[in-house]
Amino acid sequence: MKITDLDFAFPEELIATAPQRPSRVMWVQENGEPQEISIQELMERIPSGDVLVVNNTRVLKRRVFAGDIEILFLKQTNQFDWEVLFPSKKHKIGSALELPLGLTMTLIEKGRPQKVRLNQEVTEDYFQKVAELPLPPYIQKARDQRHTVDADESWYQTAWAKSPGSFAAPTASLHFSSEDMQKLRERGVKIVEVTLHVGLGTFLPVTAEDLNDHDMHEEYVEVSAETWKVIADVRASNGKVWSLGTTTTRSLESAAQGLLQGSAETGYRGFTKLLIQPGYKFKVVNRLLTNFHQPQSTLLALVAGFSSLERVKACYQWAIERKFRLFSYGDLSCWTETQQ
User: What is the pTM of this model?
Assistant: First the structure.
């Protein structure tokens, strides 16, 4: 698939800069026709006995400012050394930046990511004091404000976020509250969790002309034996697996494809680089709930792989004409698997 196949036009004002409650929902029927329903109607369409799978990752505060320079701390490689992302084009190897609370960062290697050395060890306490959540750059641009607002602390974490390690929120989950999940449980819907920590790839554009040539950045996944058993039991009884978000979908499909370590008895864990696009045969997921994704993104390719590129483009156009709100803080779409 060419990356340009995943292009579409949209008005900039449809980029959501804050959540809207309740969210609007685009439900794509089995014949491919979209319709608008409410969150309440969506919940009523998930049958008793089906399973809804959610991602329990928690977003890390790792965005630190040195003046007007933004540094995203990705990975600690030893006591003083880190892999980071920041605009390093104008900085030479050996140049230093002064960060808050007396921290100095020296550039030791360029690339994506860059490697830096700090003058002292930093702990989680440091990031809690000075860092911000890594809000997507397009939200910063749409707000004309690079810093987060206080409300982002709750807006950009899911109601069930508990496993720290992500650099972006699993945004499909932002549409639902803990109370919503309890209502579904009371109706007989089974709800289970997986963990996928969203990684570096969410911040980097696809540069390959052909998606097959794109090198996906690996992301850490955990699928417990308990979660896998519930899913297997539901499938054995002809129930459906509803996946809340692309991260959850990649977790389940990575386990089913044998890309993780472990077994059904012990659970699965490990790193995945699974790229899903048209032609992929889904092994687990029957229903996909997800936000509206950016053009030329691997997330949009996943949705096109679940439904079809033609259908996704037509439904996106329908939603844009009706002013659905786009991307991380935007509205929700619901898809039925189309085997291609």
Answer: 0.95
**Looking up tokens 């691997």, which residue turns up?**
298
pLDDT score of 340:
47
Q: pLDDT tens digits, residue range 178-194? A: 999 999 999 999 999 99
Sequence letter at residue 172: A
Mapped onto helix, strand or coil, the DSSP state of residue 321 is: helix
Tokens 């297997």 identify what position?
232
Mean pLDDT estimate for the chain: 95
CA distances from 79 to 123, 127, 199, 220, 244 (A): 10, 15, 21, 22, 37
In the structure encoding, which two tokens stand for residue 35, read together?
Answer: 């319709």
Helix, strand and coil content of the chain, in percent to the nearest 5, comes to 30, 30, 45
Quick one: average pLDDT of 4-24?
96
Output the CA–CA distances (angstroms, integers) from residue 192 to 24, 181, 185, 222, 305, in the order listed. Answer: 24, 10, 11, 12, 24
Question: What angle separates helix 298-306 from helix 246-256, to the nearest 10 degrees?
Answer: 70
Taking only the tens place, the pLDDT of each residue in 318-333 is: 999 999 999 999 999 9
**Beta pairing class for 69-76 and 332-336:** unpaired
Which pair of structure tokens corresponds to residue 10?
Answer: 């949209």
Residues counted in the chain: 340
The amino acid at residue 29 is: Q
In this structure, the dihedral spanned by the alpha carbons of residues 181, 161, 200 and 313, taken in order and rounded to 10 degrees, is 20
